[in-house]
Amino acid sequence: MAGLLMSMVWTTMLNRLRPALAKVVTPVGRTLARTGVTPNVITVVGTAGVVAGALGFYPRGELFWGTIVITAFVLFDMFDGAVARITGKTGPWGAFLDSTMDRVADAAIFSGLILWFTGAGNNALLAWLALYCLVSGVVISYAKARAEGLGLTCDVGIAERAERLIISLVGAGLYGLGVPYALHTALVVLAVLGTITVAQRFHTVYAQTRAAAERVGR
Ligand SMILES: CCCCCCCC/C=C\CCCCCCCC(=O)OC[C@H](COP(=O)(O)O[C@@H]1[C@H](O)[C@H](OP(=O)(O)O)[C@@H](O)[C@H](O)[C@H]1O)OC(=O)CCCCCCC/C=C\CCCCCCCC
Ligand SMILES: Nc1ccn([C@@H]2O[C@H](COP(=O)(O)O)[C@@H](O)[C@H]2O)c(=O)n1
Ligand SMILES: [Mg+2]
Ligand SMILES: [Mg+2]
């Protein structure tokens, strides 16, 4: 319970960090834009790097170096949108590409962990926890995409993608450095927060559909 409360406080702090982070991301985005690189190239290269890091290192048990490579490339995701906005290239194709590539990257990270722990890493508990985190992450993202496709909003959740990435990458990185139970702790926290996020998204969509039904008297 204390751990959960700490995570909630931390997540709130992360939300507060977002505007401050924009002050770093925007100038870097401006520099990138001047090089002529397109937002879609940043999106694709970032995803390819995450997939290569996750599937190239994790299944061999190289959790620390895998985490370093993944972290470097996952940060590209903060700059593609900035470059798109600065160059006036935002659009539905870029938004679709960004969100869909996010799912590919997330799947690769947890698949890499699962491949290691079901293979030579031989740890069924961590494999099951990683599988749970993979599936809950998919449900979290799908719920939002489907809600938005129905014209509803679903911008809630204690563990959105950035939070999920930080928890899993810190856990994997520390475990790779030999910190006992770092990944166990991270994946349990992520499983709990992921489940809460699924519930939060179901609740917000249900509330909107009920309100709409009441308006038409159903
Ligand atoms: C010894 C151990 C060493 C281990 C080190 C590992 C440490 C790892 C620490 C940090 C890793 C940072 C990872 C964070 C990367 C965040 C990437 C990201 O998600 O950026 C995009 C995101 C919002 O984009 P969207 O709104 O387009 O994304 C939507 C989102 O994915 C939705 O998710 P859902 O919850 O629904 O699944 C999808 O639904 C939707 O489809 C999708 O479009 O941007 C942000 O969230 C911005 C805030 C990120 C806050 C990250 C804080 C990072 C903190 C420190 C990093 C320092 C960065 C400094 C940069 C300096 C550059 C020179
Ligand atoms: N290749 C891309 C990537 C992103 N966008 C736009 O940016 C938004 C997301 O930006 P983040 O930096 O928060 O990831 C996205 O919804 C698109 O509007 C783009 O156009 N092309
Ligand atoms: Mg992005
Ligand atoms: Mg993205």
Describe this structure in words.
The structure is a single chain. This protein has 218 residues and is mainly alpha-helical. It has a single domain (2-215), classed as Up-down Bundle (Four Helix Bundle (Hemerythrin (Met), subunit A)). It contains 8 helices and no strands. Helix 1 (2-35) packs across helix 4 (76-86), helix 6 (124-149) runs parallel beside helix 8 and helix 7 (161-176) packs antiparallel against helix 8 (182-215). The ligand Nc1ccn([C@@H]2O[C@H](COP(=O)(O)O)[C@@H](O)[C@H]2O)c(=O)n1 binds next to helix 2, helix 4 and helix 5.
Span between N and C termini?
40 Å
Could you say which overall geometry the principal axes of the C-alpha atoms support?
A: globular
Name given to the CATH architecture: Up-down Bundle
Helix-residue proportion: over 70%
Approximate strand percentage:
under 5%
Number of strands: 0
| Main sheet: strands, sense, barrel | none
Low-confidence stretches: none
CATH superfamily: CDP-alcohol phosphotransferase transmembrane (TM) domain
Q: What is the residue-mean pLDDT, rounded to a whole number?
A: 94
- Based on CA atoms alone, the radius of gyration comes out at 18 Å
Number of domains as seen in the coordinates? 1
By CATH, the topology is Four Helix Bundle (Hemerythrin (Met), subunit A)
Q: Work out the helix count.
A: 8
List the helices and strands in order. HHHHHHHH
Q: Give the class-level CATH name.
A: Mainly Alpha
- Structural class category: mainly alpha
Bound ions, cofactors and other small molecules, one mention each = ligand LH5YIG7M, ligand L45E5XJ5, magnesium ion
InterPro entries: CDP-OH_P_trans, CDP-OH_PTrfase_TM_dom, CDP_ALCOHOL_P_TRANSF_CS, PIP_synthase_PgsA1
GO cellular component, one term: plasma membrane
Enzyme class: transferase
Binding site for Mg(2+) 1: 77, 80, 98
